[in-house]
């Protein structure tokens, strides 16, 4: 007889993914406080029973979403870093372009920006959320910091500030510029241009 366990596991995983995808959209649109379990279930096409068989609460789902976001983002950044390194940092083009390539792996569409803002807000309010958010920042920061060090070494450049401080500056500029672009309803091309200008200024400050 065919073992039903793999099929059951796949169905359960599919249910979790659909619930998390629906919740990500809801949290980005109305925040965690404004998104009810019922609304998440309706958007995902499941019942409350399906929700509670996978998550103990809306807060537990949010933390699972934070963990998934952290894994996805860090994996994307590391893959981008590996791709850049395989081309050879000495010949991979402009320093600013290298940095921008990596930061673009963190995502820049409207949903990403809104969900990121909601995550930071909840992290400020709730210690449990703060732990998940800090884990994302740590993994992302470590990957970008190593790239900053590698670029400086490969190009024979010196850092005016410690590499981890340089990373904090770059990520802060990325987040601030992305949120400002959304607030001011900038077109994608205008947003990318503004980001490039700001990153260029920061790169000029941290490298010599």
TrEMBL record:
Domain of life: Bacteria
Keyword terms, alphabetized: DNA-binding
PANTHER family reported in the protein's UniProt record: HTH-TYPE TRANSCRIPTIONAL REGULATOR RUTR (PTHR30055), TRANSCRIPTIONAL REGULATORY PROTEIN (PTHR30055:SF241)
Protein name, entry field: TetR/AcrR family transcriptional regulator
Species of the source: Microbacterium galbum
Entry keyword DNA-binding: yes
DNA-binding region: 36-55
InterPro entries in alphabetical order: Homeodomain-like_sf, HTH-type_TetR-like_transc_reg, HTH_TetR
């Amino acid at each position: 007889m065919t073992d039903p366990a793999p099929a059951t596991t796949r169905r359960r995983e599919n249910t979790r993914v659909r619930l998390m995808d629906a919740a990500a959209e809801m949290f980005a649109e109305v925040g965690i406080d404004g998104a009810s379990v019922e609304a998440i279930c309706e958007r995902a096409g499941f019942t409350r029973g399906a929700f509670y068989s996978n998550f103990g609460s809306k807060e537990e789902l949010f933390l699972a979403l934070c963990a998934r976001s952290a894994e996805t983002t860090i994996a994307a950044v590391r893959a981008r870093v590996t791709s850049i390194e395989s081309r050879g940092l000495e010949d991979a083009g402009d320093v600013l372009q290298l940095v921008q390539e990596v930061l673009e792996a963190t995502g820049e569409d409207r949903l990403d920006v809104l969900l990121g803002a909601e995550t930071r807000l909840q992290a400020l309010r709730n210690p449990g959320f703060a732990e998940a958010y800090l884990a994302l920042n740590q993994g992302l920061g470590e990957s970008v910091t190593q790239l900053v060090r590698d670029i400086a070494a490969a190009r024979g450049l010196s850092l005016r500030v410690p590499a981890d401080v340089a990373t904090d500056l770059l990520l802060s500029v990325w987040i601030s510029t992305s949120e400002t672009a959304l607030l001011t309803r900038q077109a994608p091309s205008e947003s990318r241009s503004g980001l490039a200008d700001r990153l260029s200024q920061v790169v000029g400050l941290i490298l010599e």
